[in-house]
Amino acid sequence: MEATNPQLSSVYFPIGNTRSVDVTLGCHVGRECDMLLLGCGDVRNVLHTMHILQTRGTTKSKDQRINIHLNDIEDSILGRDLILLYLAGTIDPNNSEDMKFLWGVWYDALLSQEHLQRLKKVMKEVASVQSGNSGVYFGNLKSEVSIKRALLGMEKADINGKQMIDTRLEYLDMAYRSGMPMVTMDWITGTLISPKVDLPQTAVDWMTARVSAHCGRLDKVPRLKDRYHQEIRDFISTGVTRVNSKSLSSEQIVDSFKGNITLLRPGCSIWKVPDSCCPFFCYDFDLELHRYDGRTVTLASLCLEILKKWVESFQAAMKDDCAIKIHMWHGEATEVCETDLPEDLRFDFIDTSNLADRVGLISVLSCSRDRLKSANGLLRTESFNYTKLEGYISVEIFLRDCIDVPILMYPTVFGLHLAEDISLGHESLLLTQCAHIRTKLTLKWKTAREQENLTALTLAENASDAVSKALEKIENYQGLDSGDPSVVKKMCVKRGTDKILKRIQNIAKDTNLLTHPPDAKKRSTVTEYTDHYLVTITTDPECLKEGTFSTDRVDGDPYVVELQNSQNGYSSFSETLRLSCGIALNSSNIKLSRKRGWIEACLVKDADVTMGERVLPWNKLNTNSAADLPNFPLSKTGKETLETYVASMCQVSAGKPSPIHQLRFLVEQILITVPFSSGVPTHITLRAPSHSHPAKRASKMLRLEGLKIHEDRPTLFLTFFDFDIAEVLVTQTKITNEEIMPWEDIKKTCGEMDLSSQRLSEGYALLMRILEVNSHRVIQDQSEDRRWITRTILRGRYPYTDLLTLNCDTELVQMVNSLCVPDIRTSGQSSPVSGASSGSLAARPGEVCDSCGKISENCKRCSKCLLVFYCGKACQRKAWKVHKKVCKSA
User: Fold this and answer.
1) Fewest CB atoms within 10 Å of the CB: 649, 672, 826, 888?
2) Quick one: pLDDT at residue 375?
3) Going by C-beta distance under 8 Å and a sequence separation of 6 or more, which residues neighbour residue 140?
4) For residue range 818-860, what is the model confidence (pLDDT) as tens digits?
5) CA 613, CA 609: separation in Å to the nearest integer?
6) Are the C-beta atoms of residues 65 and 31 closer than 8 Å to each other?
7) Helices and strands, counts by H and E, the chain
């Protein structure tokens, strides 16, 4: 999470508060890789990424170069990062005392006297390092001076254990009180209560709820639940995890330890670090929970094991042939991108943490786009505001509120593709089980074509085209997208919108301008709309008088389309269009007048190649690399872990299952039931309605190759056989019957899933789309025009919607009531009444009006989706006006 300077906020983020990520996001890494981490906070993402690259073998390649650029607005956080990187590169990972020292410096509020003295020695060494030595470079003199000043300021600081704990508990008490509602509803007794802060219990309850949201299995076993609650209680009480607390009591730790001076701002002796900044939220230890016993194996020790692997990989990478350079840039992120970085410096990967929550998504997209390499540059954004404000219940609504431009216009307007399959969901588990825990939304973006290579666009005379509308919206953008106006930097917003306007104006031409010289006979215009391009061309009729007119992709590129008329093997007319969005030729249509020399082409955008994961340059797995991945344990605990993952896809529904519920059932059968009952590999036939002929059942088969751990997630590798496609390929003589026969024989003897009889056709369609999308991550054995056998992967997918979305489904109202707790601090919304139906609906006493915020005994609710509450006619009108933006039924 991006730190902030004292003038903007008193909160300090020297420790991450979200799980580490691989900055490359599983994509291809070139021979020279440049990464930029804006608002980087600590270096967990750096070490995680280097671990992935070393494991993948990237760092072992000769002449491999990796440049990592770190930015933060807090000079002391960058100074602390230098300390952590120095330690990660020099300690002995096989020496338990060295690892405990690194762990203590990184996470513990208190340090032993021995660790503190060692830390101060390291600080002096790091503060004296010259730019370019030991692989560390300061981006500019300003950064070097401020970072070294911060290091010297920390080195001079001193605070004893009692002072540190006192100021820490004072801060936590204040933080919880400021976030606590004045009054809330006790749903058990139906009475109003005034919540109270009771430390450490309040902090323990909050932290355990969040840990449980990450790792649902911990709460299933009472013995383990008690133990991890106690471990978190000990950490809250002393600020020291069990890695370094040894057998000492809380009193002994406070009396004998000293304050960790790297967790305080230089010159400040007041604790400002929220309790969300702790190791339990930084590491993905879900797959190791079967070993947890709360004694010899603790949450902290599981995290320490992961850190040890990171350190080993980091040091191994430095010993490999590749060159690793760390660059430090101090300053506000968007300003660093605009003015501090060298003008020609571009990056393969940019990670922006949750910078979008502070300066607006438009500012982040605009400052990052011009810093990405043109071919395959990749951007990652985060937002905690996804569910923070009332009504933001889906990604589409969230994005529309942030930038109000249709998604299929992003390549033209922002020069970026949204690299997420929103309809299929995300592979990272979102925290949707607990209504009082904020959900973080992560999105991937890939660079679109460079504007100078695109065909010039034409603005419609009546401004009805999508480019003109986007131009108007960007010009009127106020920069208050889904964030607190007090923290949105107007300068960043102005700078961002100016860049976007310039981009749009550079690729759009006035209606009177021609794409050809004035004396040429050929004239053309290309007008872009939300879902298509309208191309009109007038040319010499002689060019079209005879021959065959065709529309084709150039070299198979869906972004480059050629309109051509051929006579006797020669081209009499040709127009090549280079567009921001891919084109679906099968859905497009052409109107042609040979007599007048007039052409009108409606080129429909292909969403499949314009947005979603297909646009990403994946680092594709081959057979050998997939086989080398660690096996997922086919054991009782392994099955419990998988069941937790799959159950989080959605909650069980009464009545007719929705497509996502159907998908959950299918994933559960294929990912859990079959492997844990029969073992892998095995074969399953899928009988479902054919897409082209619904009355006919499709003939498909899955071969389950192996259940692996890939990208820290349970992953089923499989091969997909489409016998219907095979029959077509045989008729086209692209394959022979002999190639099909061996698999046909296997199909006769394998297990069968009859999806049509179980009303699972919609879920089956989603499953087919997921398998197709995931196939782009694996190297295929057949060319695309002969492909009826596809290698792919399967794992859980989690909807891009907050739990509140389920309130719109009347079949799930009762289920939601049992899960949701009203949270006045964040959403301002309350849970619907159990058993509520449409009509005039009274709420329970104590409901909070969504319009005025008052608590009333006679509130009413929205009869359409049972979500919005209002306490009077005026409030009803106001709430309904706002609510219409998000209520699908309104």
Assistant:
1) 888
2) 87
3) 329, 340
4) 322 223 222 333 222 223 233 333 443 444 555 554 545 455 5
5) 9
6) yes
7) 29, 31
739, 646, 754: which is closest to 698 by C-alpha?
754
Tokens (6 digits) for 809:
């489904």
**Dihedral angle sign, alpha carbons of residues 522, 528, 529, 530:** positive
Round to whole Å and give the CA distance between 256 and 248.
Answer: 10
CA distance linking residue 354 with residue 194, whole number of Å:
32
First to last CA, the chain: 36
Cα gap 144→131, rounded to integer Å: 8
352: which strand partners?
none
Q: In this predicted structure, which of 59-73, 124-138, 513-527, 743-757 has the lowest mean pLDDT? A: 513-527
pLDDT of 352 strictly over 50: yes
- Answer yes or no: is pLDDT of 726 > 90: yes
pTM over 0.85: yes
Separation of alpha carbons 356 and 350, rounded Å:
13
Tell me which residue has tokens 């079967």: 290
For residue 100, how far is the Cα from the chain centroid?
A: 32
Token pair 């786009």 in the structure block, residue: 369
Q: How many CB atoms lie within 10 A of CB 349?
A: 24
- Going along the chain from its start, the domains and CATH numbers come out as 1-160+193-353 (no CATH), 392-613 (2.60.40.790), 620-794 (no CATH), 803-883 (no CATH)
Q: Which of 571-575, 674-678, 839-843 has the lowest mean pLDDT?
A: 839-843
**Euclidean distance between CA atoms 57 and 353, whole angstroms:** 26
Residue with tokens 């502070």: 358
CB-based contact 889:808 (threshold 8 Å): yes
| Helix or strand holding residue 29 (H, E) | none
The dihedral sign for the CA sequence 232, 234, 236, 242: negative
Whole-number CA gyration radius for the chain: 29
Share of the chain above pLDDT 90, in %: 55
The torsion of the CA quartet 40, 84, 113, 237, rounded to 10 degrees, works out to 40
* Amino acid identity, position 659: P
Alpha helices by DSSP H, 508-657: 541-544, 607-610, 623-627, 636-647
Cβ-count burial 368-397 (b if 16+ within 10 Å, e if not)? bbebbbeebbbbbbbbbbbbbebbbbbbeb
- From CA 721, how far away is CA 377, in angstroms rounded? 34
**Helix residue ranges per DSSP H, 291-436:** 299-319, 333-335, 356-359, 361-369, 395-403, 410-413
Nearest to 61 by CA among 376, 311, 323: 323
Question: Each residue of 666-676: b (16+ CB within 10 Å) or e?
Answer: bbbebbbebbb
Closest CA to 150 of 103, 47, 102, 81: 81
| Candidate from 53-62, 205-214, 563-572 with smallest mean pLDDT | 205-214
Q: What is the pLDDT of residue 752?
A: 79
DSSP string, 377-404: -EEEEEESTTTTSTT--BHHHHHHHHH-
Please state, as a whole number, how many other Cβ atoms lie within 10 Å of the Cβ of residue 6. 13
Question: The tokens of 478 are what?
Answer: 């106020």
Q: What is the pLDDT of residues 46-67, one digit of tens each?
A: 999 999 999 999 999 888 999 9
Give the pLDDT confidence score for residue 372 in this predicted structure.
Answer: 97
pLDDT for position 154 = 93
Run of H or E including 742: helix 737-749
**Of 881, 287, 300, the residue nearest 635 (C-alpha):** 287
Residue 817, number of CB atoms within 10 A of its CB: 17
Strand 869-870 versus strand 860-861 pairing type = antiparallel
Write down the residue that tokens 């759009």 correspond to. 508
More confident residue, 764 or 484: 764
